Amino acid sequence: MADTICEQYPGEGEILARAASLYESSNPDFPIVPDRTVLFVIDLQEGFVAEGARMWAPQTLRIIPHVKSLTKPSRSLGMPVIFSV
């Protein structure tokens, strides 16, 4: 069994490296003002992320820690966090 993401998903490492490089070299074109900003989380419904669910794909589980890393700081800044259903 493959040990790393790059081994599990050939080609994904290059895409992730390019995305990280672009992310690090860019800045948002707008200020993030906590009292005028919302974190809107789309499509983390149980049918997509629950293991064995009808529409589940194992790759969806990789996004959950990233979403969690955004929700706590957003809430601490007083920003609403909204999950679509």
Short description:
This protein has 85 residues and is mainly alpha-helical. It contains four helices and two strands; from the N terminus they run ααβααβ.
Q: Mind explaining what this structure looks like?
A:
The protein has 85 residues and is mainly alpha-helical. It folds into 2 domains: 1-29; 31-85, no CATH class. It is built from 4 helices and 2 strands, in the order ααβααβ. A two-stranded parallel ribbon has the order 1-2. The longest helix is centred in the first third of the chain and has 13 residues, at 12-24. The chain is flat and about 40 Å long.
* Element order: H for helix, E for strand: HHEHHE
- The secondary-structure class comes to mainly alpha
Strand order, sheet with most strands: 1-2
Query: How many beta-strand elements?
Result: 2
What is the assembly state of the chains in this entry?
single chain
